[in-house]
Design goal:
Layout lengths: L7 H11 L2 H5 L6 H12 L13 H14 L4 E6 L1 H19 L5 E3 L6 H8 L5 E6 L8 H8 L3 E4 L11 H10 L2
Parallel strand pairs: 1-3, 1-4, 2-3
Helix pairs in contact: 1-3, 3-4, 4-5, 7-8
């Protein structure tokens, strides 16, 4: 469906549709890979977008969240490496929500949240984006957590970290829970 880089005018057109008006006036524009992600997520329903460091991959994750919300995903999960969880919650999400005009509630399940509160939040049935550090996928209650979340869409930021040997248990748990 989407092959090769988009033309500059296509990137500008997609930016005009996806960027919030205030951010647009401030000069915020999507980069070509981000615009291509918009197109893939909204037309195909998903995207695997490997890209270089500093290339705007975090925004790509949130573009997917926005596209999936438009497609009716009530509950979404964003998996992130534990080392970027705090930064994602404190900086990346507020920036993306402002820049892209995303209106999806955010529920953080990491950051030392006690198991009881984490499970209560997962079972709440609330709509929104649940941010789950990879490390929670290795906990004893990972299957129960994923079942309770029962997401309509899953977005994985920095998915290459799931290939590390210490993450193999996470991969098995996540795959088994989503069958």
């Amino acid at each position: 469906p989407v092959r090769g880089p988009l033309a500059p005018e296509e990137v500008e057109a997609i930016s005009g549709e996806e960027v919030a008006p205030a951010a647009w006036r401030e000069g915020f524009r999507l980069w070509e890979p981000q615009a291509r992600t918009c197109l893939l997520a909204s037309t195909v329903g998903g995207a695997h977008v490997p890209y270089r460091t500093g290339g705007g991959k975090a925004i790509m994750s949130f573009i997917a969240v926005k596209a999936f919300a438009r497609r009716g995903a009530r509950r979404q999960v964003l998996h992130v490496p534990p080392r970027v969880y705090a930064q994602t919650m404190a900086k990346k999400i507020p920036h993306a929500w402002r820049a892209l005009g995303i209106d999806v509630p955010v529920h953080g399940l990491g950051g030392g949240l006690p198991r009881e509160r984490r499970m209560r939040l997962a079972k709440s049935g609330w709509s929104g984006l649940y941010v789950v550090p990879f490390s929670l996928l290795s906990c004893e209650d990972a299957d129960e957590l994923l079942d309770a979340l029962d997401p309509d869409a899953v977005v994985v930021d920095e998915a290459h970290h799931l290939g590390f040997r210490h993450s193999s248990n996470s991969v098995r748990r996540s795959a088994r829970a989503r069958r």
